[in-house]
Amino acid sequence: MRKKTTNLIAFLLLLTMVSVAILSMKDESAIMDEVAHIPAGYSYLTQKDMRLNPEHPPLLKDLSAVPLLFIDNINFPSEIDAWQNKVNGQWDFGFKFLYQSDNNADQIIFWSRIAMILILLILGIYIFQWAKELYGSRIGLLALFLYSFSPTFIAHGRYVTTDVGAAVGFFIATYYFIKWFKKSTTKHLILAGIAFGIAQLLKFSLFLLVPYFGLLLLIWIIINKKRFWKYIWKFVLVLIVGYVLIYPVYAFHVWNYPAERQISDTDFISSQFPLKPVNKVLVWMAEKPILRPYAQYFLGLFMVFQRATGGNTTFFLGDVTNKGWSHYFPTVYIIKTPLTLHILTIIALLFLAWQFKFKYVRGSASHIFKHIKKYFVEYSMLIFLGVYWASSITSNLNIGVRHILPTFPFVYLLISGQINRIFSFLKTKKKLFIVHCSLFIVLLAWYAFSSLSVFPYYLTYFNELVGGAKNGYKYVTDSNLDWGQDLKRLTNWVEENNIKKIKVDYFGGATAEYYLGDKFEPWWGDRNPEEAKGSWLAISATFLQQGRATPTKGWDHPTDFYMWLNKYEPIEVIGNSIFVYYISEQ
């Protein structure tokens, strides 16, 4: 395929993805995390002060705030208690900034999200480039196709969060690290270090790159019989380049952060960590002017370690807990990924098993060893999948398929590579080749149709195994389905149906008062159902399902406060995430 033709198709695929992402978000209200991230990013660029949202690195929030610098008359409520006195008062400040400071919340949210689309584009370009380098231009386009129509990437790539950024960081840092293996020059070492450093500025989970890269290095040294200490020192240099890059970025973000305030905030937050020596070290660092940037960085890193251990309250398969389930991520991956991708995965694995059985298992140990050396890139991707999945399954933080997004690009490349080998094998078998080509085209068409058919409700995508998006709430909620994105759509529905008053129990990053005005009446789960009679009632799926669930062992909070709604059928389900009822007088 000619280079111009290949690049044109790649451009059209990315253009389609970006267009779908932008068009599908225009009627969406802020999701929960955006209340913290968007105002924090704006505060970083305008105040040079990182007192808000330290548990996430600043780079993505900075990017989201760049368009806001060109909007006139954004009011920054620096006088409120959440900014002046509270330790990490991100939620109070965020709601005040967006909805109670005479700012245009929809305008701020839209332009912040537009900046995030750039991250989608960057990841798509690298997926295409790496697949093309490994397997050729046609397979590069196949990997890009799987990415461009991914409902999960389209859904989360529109929001000001760190999840797609994490996928970018893992993928691109791995790309340059392996390039350094292939060409061990100073240039590639520096590029690997820069990519590693940028990754650390995207999300703290990317600290996982340190043990992952260390493991890859040991395998590379063994299979290539390299000098151990020579490569170990070079690996240390990669890490040093990365952490040197972190310093000036964090230095900017604590530039106007009062030193006394940083010390007291650090002490308060880190005093809650289970490892008490960490508190002393972080406070000591914060007290040293030269180390303040690193004190802020490591504070956020340890905050994430603590949260992953502590968990988050969530609904899953009829149960509620904050302790997590070992089968949570495998389940959400199965039901929230297009069924076509699972079929392609099975085909790729079966062909891989056949290759091993007839080509490698019967060979000598040295033969297998040479095979690992020849296909080191693919083995590196498989190792990453193993490391990341093991980390995810053992985590108590079970709130969405978005947390395993970093694995997706590697899956796309591995599947595409195997498809390439399958068709190379079938080239000499004309009839089989035609049959398999036809089947493959049907599968790709199904993949694209499955994705486009959920437009514009991409966050609520579920595959055919569970009956699609309309049934997703029965299995999981939170960021898998209901993150608060449909409040504006509820407002439109209320207007269209001339409803004068509606009680709302809303989960998300907006406020019902801002959109519904005097039509809104507050509602919450433990209110007496008798008070709802003769009223319209709208409930976010996250709250609804947590109130119609079974508590797991050790969970002592109420989980039956919405059981009484089981005798009612919803009049409407807004965007698959907000259930609207009319509660009759009788």
Describe this structure in words.
- With 586 residues, the protein is mainly alpha-helical.
- Among the domains are: 52 residues; 112 residues.
- Helices cover 60% and strands 5% of the residues.
- It has 24 helices and 8 strands.
- The strands form 2 sheets. The protein has a 5-stranded mixed beta sheet with strand order 4-3-5-8-7.
- The longest helix has 31 residues.
- It is globular and about 75 Å long.
- It starts with a helix and ends with a strand.
- The mean pLDDT is 92.
Which labels suit this protein?
586 residues; mainly alpha; five-stranded mixed sheet; three-stranded mixed sheet; 24 helices; globular
Please summarize what this structure is.
The chain has 24 helices and eight strands. The chain has 586 residues and is mainly α.
- Ranges where pLDDT stays below 50 over 5 or more residues in a row are none
Average pLDDT reading = 92
The percentage of residues in β strands lies in: 5-15%
Helix content: 55-70%
The largest β sheet comes out as: 5 strands, mixed
General form: globular
Q: In DSSP terms, counting alpha (H) and pi (I) runs of 4 or more, how many helices?
A: 24
What class do helices, strands and sheet pairing give? Answer: mainly alpha
Strand order of the largest sheet: 4-3-5-8-7
Count the E strands: 8
Gap between N and C termini: 69 Å
Measured on Cα atoms, how large is the radius of gyration?
25 Å
How does the SSE layout of this entry go?
Layout: H1 3-25, H2 32-47, H3 59-65, H4 81-84, H5 90-99, H6 105-135, H7 137-148, H8 151-156, H9 163-182, H10 186-200, H11 209-224, H12 228-253, H13 259-270, H14 276-287, H15 292-310, E1 314-316, E2 319-321, H16 328-336, H17 339-360, H18 365-374, H19 376-393, H20 408-426, H21 430-452, H22 487-496, E3 502-505, H23 512-516, E4 520-522, E5 535-540, H24 541-546, E6 550-551, E7 572-574, E8 578-583
Parallel strand pairs: 2-6, 3-4, 3-5
Antiparallel strand pairs: 1-2, 5-8, 7-8
Helix pairs in contact: 1-6, 1-7, 2-3, 2-5, 3-6, 6-7, 6-9, 6-20, 7-20, 9-10, 9-11, 10-12, 11-12, 12-15, 13-14, 13-15, 14-15, 17-20, 17-21
